[in-house]
Amino acid sequence: MSTTTTEKTNRQGFKWSDYQGLPSTLCKGCGHDNITRNIIQAYFELGVVPSNVVKTSGIGCSSKTPAYFVHRGYGVNAVHGRMPSITLGAKLANYKLEVIGVSGDGDSASIGMGQFCHAIRRNLDMVYVVENNGVYGLTKGQFSATAERGAKSKTGEENALSDIDLCALAITLGGTFVARGFSNDPKQMLSLVKASVAHKGTSMLDVISPCVTFNNHEASTKSIHYVMEHDIHLNDLGFVAPWEQPVTDIKPGEAIDIPLPDGSHIVVRAVGKAFDPHDKFAALQVLEESRRKGEILTGLIYIAEKEPDFNTATKVPTDRPLTTMNEADCRMPREAFEKTFAGFR
Amino acid sequence: MSTTTTEKTNRQGFKWSDYQGLPSTLCKGCGHDNITRNIIQAYFELGVVPSNVVKTSGIGCSSKTPAYFVHRGYGVNAVHGRMPSITLGAKLANYKLEVIGVSGDGDSASIGMGQFCHAIRRNLDMVYVVENNGVYGLTKGQFSATAERGAKSKTGEENALSDIDLCALAITLGGTFVARGFSNDPKQMLSLVKASVAHKGTSMLDVISPCVTFNNHEASTKSIHYVMEHDIHLNDLGFVAPWEQPVTDIKPGEAIDIPLPDGSHIVVRAVGKAFDPHDKFAALQVLEESRRKGEILTGLIYIAEKEPDFNTATKVPTDRPLTTMNEADCRMPREAFEKTFAGFR
Amino acid sequence: MNPPETLTRPQTQKETRVTVNDLSIEVATVNGTGSQSANNIFAKSLFRMGIPISAKNLFPSNIQGLPTWFTIRVNKNGYTARKKELDWLVGMNAATWEKDVANLRPGAVVMWNSNELPEAPVNARGDLIAYPVPMADLLKPVQADAKLKKMLINMVYVGACAQLLGIEEAVVLQAIKDNFKSKQKAVEVNVQCFHAGMNYAKEKLEKRDPWRVERMDANGKKVLIEGNTIAALGALMGGATVVGWYPITPSSSLAEALIAFAKKHRVNADGTVRFVDVQCEDELASIGMVLGAGWAGARAMTTTAGPGISLMSEFIGFGYYAEIPAVIFDVQRVGPSTGLPTRTAQGDVRMAAWCSHGDTQHLVLHPGGPEECFDFARISFDLAEQFQTPVFVMLDLDLGMNFWMAEPPAYPTDAFKRGKVLTPEQLDQIKASGKKWGRYLDADGDGVPWRALPGNPHPDAAYFTRGSGHDEYARYTEDPEAYRLNMDRLKKKTETARAALPRPVLESVPGARIGIIAYGSTNNAMREARDQLVEHGLKTDYLRLRATPLPMAELEAFLKSHDRVYVVEQNRDGQMETLIRAEVRTPGLTEKLRGVRYYTGYPIDARSISDGIRNQERGA
Amino acid sequence: MNPPETLTRPQTQKETRVTVNDLSIEVATVNGTGSQSANNIFAKSLFRMGIPISAKNLFPSNIQGLPTWFTIRVNKNGYTARKKELDWLVGMNAATWEKDVANLRPGAVVMWNSNELPEAPVNARGDLIAYPVPMADLLKPVQADAKLKKMLINMVYVGACAQLLGIEEAVVLQAIKDNFKSKQKAVEVNVQCFHAGMNYAKEKLEKRDPWRVERMDANGKKVLIEGNTIAALGALMGGATVVGWYPITPSSSLAEALIAFAKKHRVNADGTVRFVDVQCEDELASIGMVLGAGWAGARAMTTTAGPGISLMSEFIGFGYYAEIPAVIFDVQRVGPSTGLPTRTAQGDVRMAAWCSHGDTQHLVLHPGGPEECFDFARISFDLAEQFQTPVFVMLDLDLGMNFWMAEPPAYPTDAFKRGKVLTPEQLDQIKASGKKWGRYLDADGDGVPWRALPGNPHPDAAYFTRGSGHDEYARYTEDPEAYRLNMDRLKKKTETARAALPRPVLESVPGARIGIIAYGSTNNAMREARDQLVEHGLKTDYLRLRATPLPMAELEAFLKSHDRVYVVEQNRDGQMETLIRAEVRTPGLTEKLRGVRYYTGYPIDARSISDGIRNQERGA
Ligand SMILES: Cc1ncc(C[n+]2csc(CCOP(=O)(O)OP(=O)(O)O)c2C)c(N)n1
Ligand SMILES: Cc1ncc(C[n+]2csc(CCOP(=O)(O)OP(=O)(O)O)c2C)c(N)n1
Ligand code: SF4
Ligand code: SF4
Ligand SMILES: [Mg+2]
Ligand SMILES: [Mg+2]
């Protein structure tokens, strides 16, 4: 791809604008738009081929965002809560596609809870972003299942039920990559998105993403202000692409270098006490502890050492996508056909 | 209720046969039938009024069992995976009903996963039994989501995905009573069922219940034999009904006495190392550890100190069921009515 | 159309014709900018002058920043449907400005915020009456931050329009007060802005248009209300005690209104509430919960739209077959699929009638206006309990979310009809009479069995409810005859119910050979459409359907007595027409049917109906 | 009927009439007792003697211990429907024994395990031909544990029946070998038990019944196969590469057979498989996955039954509106709700046609026999991709899970019709020609747009698919006209598809004034029913529908050319009749329609059809 303009291109020769999408129609200041920006940036920096990108979503403000990035990629805005199943089909059909599913807390933690849980269990190679604002934005601000007990809605109602912690849930369900970010913390977000893309398996990214219209008031526990006050970084992440200079000066105990299957690395530096993101049990512990303290823990919370992704587990061919299978691939030969029927005689 | 026969009656004057149901149509030896027996026994001993019992279920062999106990109670065999929602409506409509929902691992961990998670979160005062056999019995033995990775089906297929641990899941989701039993261990089962009934909130009872027809073969990890070999009791439970002699000789550290709202007590004696079932975090830990060791941990795994049940949280009246609300209860007075409309002028 | 020479500046000659109390106003704005209260005050003021109006909000499926149109139809005849032709535009949205202006009919008024929108499109047309208002400038003296000013700007055009149209100032001031209630500060700034607009118009704008409003006495004790709100009141008065719901446009406001009313009118001294609502995790849970509550004996309901009905399909079939009362409000929006979530349609008519796999027939009510939203919401609980089955109440976005004039309903004094519920005493009597009660036994020959409620302690009362095969005594069976008999009884029950559903409403004129059939919100355009047809020399009779299964006698009589019958509906496939065709058996009748179908997402207008009929009549 | 004096012992006089190759056998047994292989061998042996047969399993919705009936119909004319009257009962189940005997017609044979079942019911009737067989005694010499013996006992009646009916021993022995394949031990004990029964009959039973079987040559190269199995082969040959499913009777065996075939015939050298199946967490996930795969460009399918379709409703509407290929096998069972899960019905016909909220019309295939199960399974993928929409293939439990004779299909050599998929080169050409491609643009005037597949790198290829409003270029829109135009195009697409669906099959005889319409598995009873009607002097023509939307020309012509037309179907509400009534427009035609409806869960029999028609003809 030749660049006649002066616009910067990435290693694959794509321009930043190749990763842009349509103008957002979300509210000004909506957290979701910040996430979109980081997704664009990550894909650009990683040099993902835009036409291989498949963007899926359910229904909600969050689920609209796939239209706002990588316009050269293919999108499906499915029905409410069913992003995971659409994504599963697309990726199994064509393993070459680079799939990212965007969902909301209503979309994934309420109506889509079943698909969320089973997506995590399946470990399809995909990025699964939950843009988590504690409310149903698009239907005007009802509480979602990630709203904390006692949180007050804009209209003053108090939430009677405790919140569902999607990270703890994903880890419990055997998730292989579980992280939490904050829409308004671009540095962390960018590393997280890149690592999510590089991870082979389902990368679950629970991003606290304030709804400035319906959940940004004082008594909210998901307002920009509240999250900024309570955001605790579990670790700092450095993402090193395969072509980038590896970090070599890691002193033992200071950081952990996690190599990913595609040749990239994540360098994880614990912020507080030492923490090994390979330790499932420690992960559940820090989540539970931060929960008790009322903190919002962000960072890479858990990454499995090695788990087969779903295409591998299901033995989908790796040389050609199923979409290309033709008559010869699909039909048994004439003799086998006749033998098969003879067997029913 | 007068007893003219010699059949033994309980404190409420009901006979054991009042708690019986129709003859089971399950396979001979099916674990589910053992659970049924313990439910009957528990209700009989607790003296629950049979006509107040509401038995709900989804679809599956397990979901058939409500027909096999408490024929004097009322049952609904709903659609597949939706037992929790039917139960929710019934209990909110009439808080006097003593509700027990029976489900299967297919019913709750696959199609009903969303309703399971939200039932746990809601903490409706109900007993939620999952009769867990790792397969879909009624559709002839396909793996369910609680089947362990590597488990072999009767037809020799290997399960590619890891299992969902319903106890860990329930604890993560804020469950207030989480226990695991084994259908063929009646002593433990009986205490667990009684405690479940006494607990005010959702008592989630994950009962490993072998399917003797489709999942009782050698390579199964849910066969009677396998479970007996791998069953590790986390604790021994003594259930003390309100009218029974309390256990007074508990030495500190030896056992924990948990009083329940209805005046009964559970006396929990740890079998291995000390374990406090109020400790959510310890609960997750023992589950994760036993999982790693390939053990099947049974007993009372977690019980919350105090959490409001859903009827309380939603402020349903406690003096009269909603089912009895009449015109006077429901209609605002004429003046209010007219004022309301005047407000729209 | 506009001759080329007028391209420079709108004509300024003064209108001499005067049109009183008949115009259609549109405010083109952006959602999330707070125009709502200004527009409500605008509409309310006209309404309080005793003039018939209706107000509609055409909004996008997003929260902020996209075009929204608020229309007020003022019509002395009481025509309340959307009017195709606009008389009066208030342009506030740069994004749609050109198109908004282009859509106007010649001679229409256009007022706009001249600080923001260019005059060029208006001038380009040259056939419009232009009222530029520098709204931002007028706001300058007002003490408010930028955010508030964005909202207040809307009061400026209310003021300017009030002045030009002759809306009584006192009425507007009262409406402002009522709108902001105790918030004195808000009242003050709003009044200030209103006056700014009013004074500007008084001083700077020369009235050149023909439209005037004048106090009338047409509204009596009527209220101005959204269908969802009045339906919520109907549900409250109808005894709904359990609501399970999941938010979805355009139904959420029905549930939310109901909850708010219940929190006000159903509270016990101890703080408990004689009502419970659960915002469920999805529609499957909502309907499951409602069926659980209905089974236990409560009056339970859910609110949803098409996608929710699709998701509920399995459970709705369960409700039919297991015979459980439930009320389902379907506030219809445009499908298929997500479709146009903020636009209106009558697109779920067929699905509601036959929802779920297997042989099912459901009871479906189609309120034709706000009064019936109240009534049908109320009686739906009676019907559900009397016939022990799910009952649909079909609204649509237009009826549910737009403002309608309504006669306030009479205070209901009738007793709840709770259907055939057995007490322990009745069970004793049955036993004493040597009979045996069966949950699904057709004891009365009407197909409607008796039920006992869970908790009933009578030894004969308990039973097991299931969606699988069962006999008259609720015992599991796969017996072929037991299955068939039960299905036949269910059919009989439906026939009994058919006779108990609201009858159709016939409006006839002597000598009409043409019939029209319509239902639901389409009704609101029908009087106007029929008047238009009369103007074109076509007399019509009108049969308004209010429920399915259909009233066969009335329907067939109507078909018999007309040469051609037009079924007017707001969907593509003629869904009600299909239901009619499926059931009419008398030879020679279905061939009289013709369809007039409107499906754009906008509420149907009278002209589309009368044109649709006239076009076909020409060919007939 | 039986005269009182014969009440003591069945009559013993020898029959002199001989009925060759025409009887209906029923084995009344208990499920989970392993009778299946014996019964399959029984049926297979008859089939291999060249005699037309069909075999049906009437089983309960549980796993073990409840009554099951296996019926074999032997009929030289090739009638394969269930026969109402039974000729030959093998009684093995104490629980149903009395009722089984009571159901027999006079003169029927009853063979039973006399070690277990009492003779009394047989004697009580006195009009039956009794063959008691002490099966347990006969098993005594056999070396096997109790569990195995329970299964082997079934081979005893196979032997006894074979002897009495004249089934060739060599054929049975071969069938036993084929059934147990390499398991030599199993073959041996089964043969032993077979011989035990055979010899007992030879030595102890005097043949007193008229029924004989004799070798014929009617079966040619035919196979004996379940509809689900042959449909699975159709799907395999049709290029299905992705299957998402959730187990549900009676559809599971379709998915399971397909998976087994794929594991055999689609394996690459490296162990990967050119096929993927996911047993999903539920039906919503199955259809979502299938739509995802279809969207990405794979041939994808799901298998389910009524409850699954209800759950899929929302997604199916999405597939229609977003225009995504998908194949949905609905193996119908008895509804509503859970209904009778192991019984057959044609109860989802209406739902499939119009599934989901809003205006939808789906393509639905109704195979009428096993050969069409193969063909329609195969072409459904062509249709789905050609028309970019969900396609239903409707089987039912009778067709899907019972054994049918089928002509083995010709090896398919035609190319997959993958529909309008654009390559980058084609996109270049479009661009070069100055045109602009639009995902939903009706470029060819047939309503069918072109699509590009995800991954297509052409700069013009990418687009965004959604279930909300979109214009010709797949851009989000709420524009009323864009919505209407798109809906009209979708309708046009359906019209194009209508013409491409399998045509109906007409069977006519000269001079028939009566027409019959049927479809699906009902077809299997139709030849017999029409022969019965001829016996009663009624000539009929028969139009077999194979797909909806309906073939209007053929259908209307058929209605025109007959005085009365009976729509025969296996549901209560006349679902196909409704579809017909909804679409037929020519005056005077729908009033010719009459319904014959059978809904008991049992497969329809010819007598119910011919009686149903005769009864109405009498009234006509
Ligand atoms: C089946 C169905 N039910 C309900 C809706 C209405 N609806 C649209 S978006 C939404 C919730 C979105 O919440 P979330 O996923 O948190 O997204 P957000 O808008 O907060 O980003 C709901 C309930 C729908 N579109 N479909
Ligand atoms: C909507 C729907 N899908 C599928 C089925 C078929 N079905 C019946 S039971 C069952 C699984 C039952 O498994 P589980 O809950 O584990 O119960 P078990 O029989 O093992 O006790 C399935 C899939 C159904 N009845 N309804
Ligand atoms: S409503 Fe909330 S979530 Fe939706 S776009 Fe606006 S700020 Fe974002
Ligand atoms: S199939 Fe399995 S689960 Fe079902 S009844 Fe038999 S043993 Fe129990
Ligand atoms: Mg949200
Ligand atoms: Mg199970």
Summarize the topology.
The complex is a heterotetramer, with 2 copies of chain A (345 residues) and 2 copies of chain C (620 residues).
Chain A: H1 31-46, E1 53-57, H2 61-64, E2 74-77, H3 83-93, E3 98-104, H4 105-109, H5 113-122, E4 126-132, E5 135-136, E6 142-143, H6 166-172, E7 177-182, H7 186-198, E8 202-208, H8 224-230, E9 231-233, E10 235-240, E11 256-259, E12 265-270, H9 280-293, E13 296-303, H10 310-313, H11 327-330, H12 334-342
Parallel strand pairs in A: 1-2, 1-3, 3-4, 4-8, 7-8, 9-13
Antiparallel strand pairs in A: 5-6, 7-13, 10-12, 11-12
Chain C: E1 19-20, E2 22-30, H1 35-48, E3 53-58, E4 67-75, E5 88-91, H2 97-102, E6 109-113, H3 120-125, E7 129-133, H4 135-139, H5 146-165, H6 169-180, H7 184-204, E8 211-212, E9 223-226, H8 227-237, E10 242-245, H9 252-265, E11 276-279, H10 283-296, E12 300-304, H11 306-322, E13 326-332, H12 349-354, E14 363-365, H13 370-387, E15 390-396, H14 397-401, E16 403-406, E17 421-422, H15 424-432, E18 451-452, E19 464-466, H16 480-500, E20 505-507, E21 514-519, H17 526-535, E22 540-545, E23 547-548, H18 552-560, E24 564-569, H19 575-583, E25 593-597, H20 606-619
Parallel strand pairs in C: 1-8, 2-5, 5-6, 6-7, 10-11, 10-12, 12-13, 13-15, 14-15, 17-18, 21-22, 21-24, 24-25
Antiparallel strand pairs in C: 2-4, 3-4, 9-16, 14-23, 20-22
The structure holds thiamine diphosphate (TPP) (2 copies), iron/sulfur cluster (2 copies) and magnesium ion (2 copies).
One iron/sulfur cluster is lined by residues 26-27, 30, 32, 61, 133, 137-138, 211-214 of chain A.
Question: What distinguishing features does this structure have?
Answer:
heterotetramer, A: 345 residues, alpha/beta, 8-stranded mixed sheet, 3-stranded antiparallel sheet, 12 helices, 30% helix, C: 620 residues, 7-stranded mixed sheet, 6-stranded mixed sheet, 39% helix, disordered N terminus, binds thiamine diphosphate, binds iron/sulfur cluster, binds magnesium ion
